Structure formats: C-alpha cells, structure tokens
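Deliverable D2.4 — example input (structure tokens):
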C-alpha cells in the first residue's frame, strides 16, 4: 500500500523507523528488532540507507521482509549525493522486484572526507528521477528549524518547494522537541503553497548521551522543560528512559490534538520503546480503519 493513500484516509497514523546494520555480523540482531517493531502493526515502517549505499542490500531486504512477513507497508530510504546514477537505478530495480512502493528520497549527508559523486547535488533531482522510473510513492525530508547548511529558513522552504514540485507526495520532519516550532513551520509552508501531508518526526530520548549528538548534528532547539528532564534524570538510565518516552508521548498527544495526524517515531531499533509509545496512544491513535 502506498503511504500517500494511508495519509489520505485522514486519521491519525503512527509509524516507526529502523536502521540497517553496517556489517553482516550485526544483521541478525537488527532484523530481530525490526521484526519485533513490525509485529506491533504500525501504519508503516521506514528503513534507512547508509551513506553511498553501503547498506543498500540490507535496506531493501529488511524493507521487503517487513512487508512480506508482517503486512506492514515499508518505506525504503534512498540517498543520492554519494551514489552514481547507475547505483541509484540498481536500487530502484531491486525495490521494484521486491514490490516496495514507497521511497524516502534524500540527498544524504556529505561524507567526512568530502568525497561525493557528480550525478546528484540535490534531493529534488533524485525525486524527479524516481518519478520517471516507476509508480513509486515518494517522500522527502523537511526541516522545521531549517537545514544546517541553509543560509536561512526562507531559502530552506524554497528548497522544500523544489522537492514538492519535482513530485514528492509527502514530507517527514527532522526531529524537534518543541511543538510550536512545527506549528509555526506549517503556517509558513502552507503560505508558500506547499500542501502535501507533513509527517511529524519524533525522537524519544532515552539516554542522556543522545542529546549531545542531536545538538551537534542538527542544532535542534531544546526547551527548558526538556533540559530539566535531562538534567534531573540523565544519570539514572532507567528514569531517563521512562521520562524520555513520556516526553515524546506527550508531544504526540499534543500534535494529534492540534490536527497533525502523521506521527513518525525515530525508534532507534528499540522495540520496547516503540511498544510503550504505541500502548500509550492506543485510544488516541486507534486501530486502522
């Protein structure tokens, strides 16, 4: 099933993200976690993609297994800045063969050594190419606080418009911890004529060490209330996990109450975290229609 059709139903949806292993010896443990999350029967699951396609075979296989074994629609990530056109089309053919209809098209991070291929510079180019390659449902990323490489938020929204004009069907946000940031962003992009569904990306912070990494990568704003939780419970792993899940759950409840129906949880391959969030939302994001 295509994600655009799921979103068109107009009900609250809950989805989870998993990431493939970097090496074959870790495959079994990642597969086990992915299957445990799939058994929760979310509306869909996304599977990330390593830089330069280093994990592309795992991405395609995990996405296919989630779909085939559990009947959960899968969303395969695909990045392009470190890939050749030949590599991208190879992956697209693999996705077609496995019956995977949904792709999250991303530029991808620039590698630390700065080495990139010359075929793609922007996600919009990849989206356009996927559109021509088959009947895929295409998602893209958006950044309520602005992409770290953008000059300003206005320019960032113009880049989002380019992705939508190229043919993406929905967008998923980078994580955020203050819902007002998303509400303001939605107002601004709608004003610019961007009307595709926006799925809110939520990350339950279950370990204090995640905070430094999140801020370092994306410069995400941390509200005082969230900082207080980390300060108070950061040295107590069990308490931090419980508080982090509770904070994310409260965010989701507020979003759904304010009309944001698409919720995507960056569950970091943690089935117990996914299960607790789903259980806490059982009546708020109820059974599928």
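Example output (designed residues):
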């Amino acid at each position: 099933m295509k994600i655009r059709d799921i979103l068109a139903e107009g009900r609250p949806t809950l989805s989870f993200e998993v990431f493939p292993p970097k090496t074959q010896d870790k495959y079994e443990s990642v597969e086990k976690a992915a299957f445990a999350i799939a058994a929760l029967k979310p509306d869909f699951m996304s599977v990330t993609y390593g830089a330069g396609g280093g994990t592309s075979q795992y991405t395609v296989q995990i996405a296919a297994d989630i779909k085939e074994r559990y009947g959960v629609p899968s969303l395969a990530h695909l990045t392009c800045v470190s890939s050749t056109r030949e590599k991208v089309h190879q992956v697209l053919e693999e996705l077609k063969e496995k019956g995977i209809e949904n792709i999250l098209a991303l530029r991808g991070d620039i590698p630390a050594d700065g080495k990139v291929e010359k075929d793609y510079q922007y996600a919009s180019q990849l989206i356009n190419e996927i559109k021509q390659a088959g009947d895929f449902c295409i998602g893209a990323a958006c950044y309520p606080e602005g992409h770290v490489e953008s000059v300003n938020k206005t320019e960032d929204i113009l880049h989002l418009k380019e992705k939508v004009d190229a043919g993406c069907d929905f967008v998923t946000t980078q994580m955020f911890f203050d819902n007002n940031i998303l509400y303001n962003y939605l107002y601004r992009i709608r004003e610019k004529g961007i009307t595709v569904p926006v799925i809110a990306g939520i990350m339950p912070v279950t370990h204090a060490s995640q905070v430094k990494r999140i801020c370092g990568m994306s410069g995400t704003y941390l509200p005082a209330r969230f900082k207080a939780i980390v300060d108070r419970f950061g040295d107590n792993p069990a308490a931090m996990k419980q508080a982090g899940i509770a904070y994310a759950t409260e965010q989701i409840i507020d979003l759904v109450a304010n009309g944001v129906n698409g919720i995507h949880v960056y569950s970091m391959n943690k089935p117990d975290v996914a299960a607790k969030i789903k259980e806490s939302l059982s009546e708020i994001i109820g059974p599928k229609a």
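The radius of gyration is 18 Å.
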